[in-house]
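Regression check, iron/sulfur cluster case 258:
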Amino acid sequence: MNSITQTLQTNTIENLFFPSPTEEAPPLTTYYNPGFNIDFTERLLGKKNGNKVPRSTQTRLDTMQKRLTPLIHPRVSFGIYEISKIEKGIVSLAHHTIFHSHKMAYSLKGAKRAVIFIATIGRQIDAEINNLMRKGELANAYVADALGSGAVERLVEQFQKEVAAELFNEDQEVGLRFSPGYCDWPITEQTALFSLLDSKTAGVKLGKTCLMDPRKSVSAIFGIYDQGKMRVKHSKNPCMRCAKKDCIARRTAVAEEI
Ligand code: SF4
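Current build output:
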């Protein structure tokens, strides 16, 4: 059976596919539990500073969660790459791929390897959102859109936690995620990221404008570091010294445990 551990040990590019429950093939891994990052979803719907969303939104969220859960079909394709050089604003991989982002370069400093991945929850939630729009159920479509983002966020968190747990035994830890189009990483570098992975296995296509199809997909990189005294998610967080106070992607001091 394929596993993240084997992938890490062989250090080759492997693909991880989570079949939908309706498919016959046994799952390669069973750790993914479909669901939603509700806090993330609620923040997309306008929740601020620990306040609750209005009761009507809460009711709609509960209803839509039940409706959308069976439509989540997660897949992740990923590879582990040596980092050959990091200099001001430039991250070079051993495979001659170069990424340009000052914040990412700051965060990846000290990492010898990086995980690069494409994750998706499939296209059924996209289809349901379009269906709701066609029927004029705009409020439901809005909530479904936020929940779709919350579902792929949860998938990515679970994937990263699984990798982190494997590496923990080897005295290594993982850092913060960076995605093209966020922070100061140009979205045009999606093309370079996609060139490293088997996007067909991930089931994700890259459009001419570098947007992904299905829409509820995430592509990203995170570093692998030797364990130190302080978690790299704290010490390598560029948001702590960034002046962009109104940034919606701002990471607070991360208190996440492996
Ligand atoms: S606050 Fe926003 S722009 Fe600044 S480092 Fe964090 S994510 Fe990037």
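Comparison notes: The two ends are 24 Å apart (CA to CA). The first strand starts at residue 14 and ends at 16. No diff flagged against the previous build.
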